[in-house]
Amino acid sequence: MKKKILVILSYIILFFYSNVLSNEENKILKIGLLAPLSGEYEELGNSLLYSLQLALNEIDDKNVIIIPRDAGFNNKEKLTEAVRDIKNQGANIIIGPISNEDFKEVNKFNDITFISPSNISPEFESNIISVGISLESQLQALSNFIKNQNKNKTVIMYPDNHYKSLVEKKLKDLNLTSTRTFKYSSNPEVLTGEIEILTNYSQRKKNLELRKKLFEDKEDEQSLKQLERLEQLYTLGGVNFDSVIIIDFGNSLKSVLTSLAYTDVNQEKVLITTVNQWFDESIFYENTIKNLYYPSINYKEFKKYNDNYFKAFNSYPNEITILTYDALGLIYYAWRKNGNISSVNDFSFKNKIKGKIGTFSFKDKKVIQELEIYRVEKNKFIKF
Question: How far is it, in rounded angstroms, from Cα 338 to Cα 344?
């Protein structure tokens, strides 16, 4: 009988100890990180890791543990191995992958939730949530801005490159009103000729020459003043649009801006906008366009984040790392609110979320960013 009691007590102690371990485990939030911590993109991987360290410092909760693993870049075997290793460490939520091209691979791990900085798709995709600044959010912000500026003839311009199919699909899904599209060559030499056709440049040039001839043989004061005024012009007549949205970046964007200026598009009448430039200061030196507008994350928070990062690590971060910073805060919020995280459904919040990038919400399993409009003017980013 005594032996039987000892056996029962042993089971009770073992059961109690198992429950204590289980409860302790539930108090710990383990988050994996998939990053290229070696190879060509090692610097980006380290920057992602440092951004999470900053976020951890701000959260200041010792129950939050980051499990970083080297997933390489476009390396399916390394990615799969990294996910399995993180899973074996007890984490069921992972920040990454950084590229949407890896989504197919991580879809296989349907018991793990992935928060990716990719901006390709704002919709929840099975077990993946993309928190990047989506083209949908940017276009919606620009559309509202253009409408508020009383413009109703918008040309949406985009390059004929490997992203064109994606852009065309997004535009079709959004079904923006009062717009038309213009696809241009990625070759700058061809581009100028295409912009000339778009802006009816040749005819406007002829209009000016014909008007000048009307006054060239006259010597009265009024005719001389008219001729003097015309001599200061490059073309005569307006274009058949009042606003443009340029879906482009870097030197390609600058080529489009140069071509619009060359074809004498009146910047006082035509609103020129583009998509998120991550506050790229090189655009300051593109002096052909006086005012350029674009939607973006909060500039003050972006600058504050960069400054804090520099103070901590004596270098500046890759732009997308601010997304992983916010991703950690988002995961922590969901964990504290729900008690655990078991699927993407735990991120279907009714309230809006405020992060470093600004305000965003989750509606109908879709990430929607509320972006602000900024203007590039006199070497400054000015919130409009």
Answer: 12
